[in-house]
Amino acid sequence: MGYVLGAIPVVAAVAFPGLLWTAVVAAAVKGGSSPGGVLVVVAVGCGLFAAGAPLVAMPLAKLERWRLRLVDPRPISSGHRALAATGAWRRLGARYREPATWREVAYAVLLATAGPVAHALVFGIAFVLLMMLISPLLTIGTTEPVAIFLGTATTFGEALWYALPALAALPVVPLLLGLLAAGHAALARALLHDGRERLRTELVEVSRSRARLVDAFEVERRRIERDLHDGAQQRLVGLTLKLGLARLDVPADSAAHQNVSAAHDEAKQLMAELRELVRGIHPRVLTDRGLPAALGELSDRCPVPVALHAGLPDRFPAHVEATAYFVVAEALTNIVKHSAATAVSVTVRQDAGVLAVEVADDGRGGADPARGTGLTGLADRVAVIDGKMLLSSPVGGPTLLRVELPCPVPSE
């Protein structure tokens, strides 16, 4: 009830300028003004409305959001952004360019036009029912006919026939007031609340959470690489050396020499596999010397000749360098396994806040992520840091893989 009653002065305030303008136009028409003069009045009114409506609508919307909490406790966001501009005119211009401002203007227009009609209808019905209800009291002590709604009553008994239906219909009044309040609140939430603000907040939180996961993942990879390199790999090197020394102490023609030699060879092979495993988890050269050196080492190990162009002057965030490295590593692996290429070109450059990685080969082409060649996982890895992956691989070749990784600020 308080929400509905509180709307009456608000509706009256916003409806008054419209009524005044309508009266001016009506006076111009009635006064015999020419059509051109009337059009001038209308045009001037429209111009004043377009210029001044936001100045009225914005504080009105702020008041209405506060009043909406009386019936709807859910959070409500205006959709207005924080103003970075300085100066009153610039700040006002920024507000005029926001969609939220014009939603508030639309709300003010609806409140000024439909609001008086809805309130007059509901309170008119309530007034008629009230007059019908008290009509028997109005007939006491007088012989004059009493006007009641669509008829008149002279006696108490006649007026009672109006009072009884009014008494039966009286519960409709709270229902109408509730519907009026609900409609007003629904209109306010529809036009004055920016539901996208919650989505933007959730997206920002998801992005931050994803960034934290990426950082935690990289930290864990480095820990595993360090533990393997400084622990298991060093112990395996020591074991290999001991087996080599033991082989020298055993007679060459004995069965023990063959067993020790086999164990030594197995240890060397295991050490090579462990070194590749450590390099695949997180290459030490990437941390120590940066992306160009790591890609150079990767290119040197590739069976297919690789032309590397990676003259990067800066170091980049660790997760960006790691992603770029593994993009090239996975691409070279796919080329060796599937493309039958004879030459590969790898280009890495920084351009407008983006680290672009391109891997091109002259192979047979036809690369398809659906065939399980690792491209889907590669795309997922790139997407984790908000990057983009583009693939051109027509049947018959050539194939071009381009990855763009956001990297606005190189690390020192």
TrEMBL record:
Report the domain of life of the source organism: Bacteria
Name the SUPFAM superfamilies for this protein.
Answer: ATPase domain of HSP90 chaperone/DNA topoisomerase II/histidine kinase (SSF55874)
Task: Provide the alphabetized UniProt keywords.
Answer: ATP-binding, Kinase, Membrane, Nucleotide-binding, Phosphoprotein, Transferase, Transmembrane, Transmembrane helix, Two-component regulatory system
The residue ranges of the Putative sensor domain are: 19-192
Q: Name one GO molecular function term.
A: ATP binding
Q: Catalysed reaction(s)?
A: ATP + protein L-histidine = ADP + protein N-phospho-L-histidine
Keyword Transferase in the entry? The reply is yes
Boundaries of each Histidine kinase/HSP90-like ATPase domain copy?
Answer: 323-368
EC annotation from Swiss-Prot or TrEMBL: 2.7.13.3
**Does the keyword section mention Ribosomal protein?**
no
Q: What InterPro entries has UniProt attached to this entry?
A: HATPase_C_sf, HATPase_dom, Put_sensor_dom, Sensor_HK_TwoCompSys, Sig_transdc_His_kin_sub3_dim/P
Class of this enzyme: transferase
Q: What GO cellular component term, any one, is given?
A: membrane
Ranges for domain Signal transduction histidine kinase subgroup 3 dimerisation and phosphoacceptor come to 220-286
What are the TM regions of this chain, as residue ranges?
A: 6-29, 36-61, 105-134, 170-192
PANTHER family per record: NITRATE/NITRITE SENSOR PROTEIN NARX-RELATED (PTHR24421), NITRATE_NITRITE SENSOR PROTEIN NARQ (PTHR24421:SF10)
State the name under which the record lists this protein. histidine kinase
